[in-house]
Amino acid sequence: MLPFLAGLEAMRERFPIARRLLDQAEKLFAELGQGTFGLAACTPRRAEVELLAGELAAAEEALRRNHSVLVSMGDRASLATCAAELAEVVLRTGRREEADRWSLVAEELVSDDDVPTQFLSRVVRAKLLALDGDAASAEALAREAVALSETTDSLSQRADVLLDLADVLRTSGRAAPAAEAGRRALELFEQKGNLASAGRARALLAELAPV
User: Fold this and answer.
1) Total number of domains in the chain
2) Which residue from 95, 104, 111, 127 has the least number of CB within 10 angstroms?
């Protein structure tokens, strides 16, 4: 339970507490002789915590560590998710070619019934298309990801995908629909109590506000 509690504390912007919970969880797994499983359970949450904290380098480090563990375990399904998350983090740092490679890995590995990874990989691809100037394809793919996310009950993930749609629309020069998507994302983040991500949504909306 500790890794998931860490994620919730991070949503409340209590990042030192979240990190301590993850350290405690890894230690307990190791004491139980389940060190590898513990890393597989904790490193994705650690990446989530660092992303919420805005620490991209730490998030990438956690995801790369998670990738190595999953390869050693032969966990193909989780590797697809890890690759999609790495694509997102790498893209946020401006490394578009590497983001493209990771997104292709995710698309190759993802199963048809893995809805979260399906929409995670789509939004990364959509943002890459938007950066390349293919606004129509980017928006279509981002809206497809939104539709997929809405089949789940994960408020934060649904809001994240809406924020990605807003980013795609902003990149394509469509400020008004981008702001609408951002407002919908903010509502979901607030409904969840995800203060950290709500702050990111407000920052995007502030950028889109007319001068």
Assistant:
1) 1
2) 111
**Is residue 49 assigned to a domain?**
yes
- The arithmetic mean of pLDDT across residues 122-129, rounded, is 95
User: Containing domain of residue 67, as a range?
Assistant: 1-73
Is 53 within 8 Å of 14 (Cβ atoms)?
Answer: no
Both structure tokens of 88:
């997102």
Name 145's Cβ contacts closer than 8 Å, sequence gap at least 6.
Answer: 118, 119, 120, 122, 123, 126, 161, 164, 165
In a domain, 23, yes or no: yes
Q: Model's pTM, two decimal places?
A: 0.92
Question: In 96-130, which positions are buried (b, 16+ CB within 10 angstroms) versus exposed (e)?
Answer: eeebbebbebbbebbeeebbbbbbbbbbbbbbbbb
Show the CA angle centred on residue 131, arms to residues 102 and 174, nearest 5°: 130
What is the CA 181 to chain-centroid distance, rounded? 17
Q: Which tokens sit at 169?
A: 């629309």
In a domain, 51, yes or no: yes
Per-residue pLDDT, averaged over 57-69, amounts to 95
- The answer to whether residue 53 is domain-embedded is yes
Question: Rounded CA gap, 57 and 59, in Å?
Answer: 5
